């Protein structure tokens, strides 16, 4: 028996529901894998197709036509919300008011006002809220975080993120993601992970942003189709190339396919984030420069490496030390399991999570305000503060920083030669 199973033995199982049975609903399978006393008992989707997927993918659960019907009939302790972004605030608020603990997929909401409404209701009701920023649990992020926390590059001063969204056409321009009224901006929908990680690595939240960007390729594609009865697995293919030859785009395409933003954080760190949806390759590249070195990841899953340069020299492909990235080779299954486990441990046993909804709000603030800036001549935007009582509520509900993992650097030819 695992430690977790031993700890949860004898407790009544949490009754968990899942709302929104599209592509992302598969994380509800991780309830069983979590090691917590928890059972998936119900699923809800407003579409017929979604309810058919629920019956097929989650046999044994009751299937409901809305989250409200599920709340009324399923006697839930917790719910995993994997509905599209524009519905997050409404669904989460109804669940929180009903006393059902919420795992809410990122982004917390598509506007800062809605994000703040969700936090206010969670604080007022005391119902647990967790936002699924799973990328924090990715091996590459943990590794970069540990390198920084050990002081290997000194004090962080600036962070630059380049995001090559090679699957952009298939992932973001063939359904609701392409429509501003549904996502706000891909700086929320896609970048919220990285904005959260920038905040984590810098140790502070964004206070001021500017944005710049455009719809450069997908806006010119005239082949459009309503795919609301399908999920991405049904149209995704590496053969869909080049991007301008894409077919079956969403009827409305008005989000930017190139977005760039710059941020000043509360501790003075300066950061930038660039996102492009028509690159051939799909990965993220972080550069973090500190007072005594810089790190950069090459690859962002197992097989990749985080390089650290910490001596003076000319350009050099090898890092002075290099740290292999562990975890999965593609995707983020390992981080997903950890994220669901963290939520359920919080609800079932009060184990404080490492991720605060305050961080999720900070990611929404940075992304939403950068998009405002981008669409308004790149004029700067300042992040408004949250009410003190809301901040205090959530500050008491987050785990202290974990001990830093020991280094496992691989010396490179370059460093061995010195
Ligand atoms: N953390 C991650 O790595 C990650 C990865 C993928 C998606 N996501 C997030 O998951 C969410 C869902 O994305 P997806 O790709 O699965 O979308 P999807 O379009 O494949 O599925 C959404 C489902 O929700 C249903 N739905 C819509 N409105 C509803 C409502 N009000 N109540 C109940 N059901 C409703 C739809 O019918 C559909 O079945 C998004 O917010 C996205 O940002 C997160």
Explain how this protein is built.
- With 418 residues, the chain is of the alpha/beta class.
- The protein has helices spanning 3-8, 30-33, 48-57, 67-74, 88-97, 112-125, 139-149, 168-172, 180-183, 186-189, 192-202, 333-349, 357-374, 388-395, 413-417, and strands spanning 14-19, 38-44, 62-64, 78-81, 101-105, 129-132, 156-165, 206-214, 258-265, 270-276, 282-290, 293-298, 305-309, 321-324, 381-382, 410-411.
- The protein is built from 15 helices and 16 strands.
- Helix 5 runs parallel beside helix 6 (112-125) and helix 11 crosses helix 13 (357-374).
- The longest helix is centred in the last third of the chain and has 18 residues, at 357-374.
- The chain starts with a helix and ends with a helix.
- The model is unreliable at 414-418 (pLDDT under 50).
- The chain binds nicotinamide-adenine-dinucleotide.
- Nicotinamide-adenine-dinucleotide binds at residues 19-24, 44-47, 50, 66-67, 82-85, 87, 91, 105-106, 132, 134, 175, 189, 231, 332.
- Nicotinamide-adenine-dinucleotide binds next to loops.
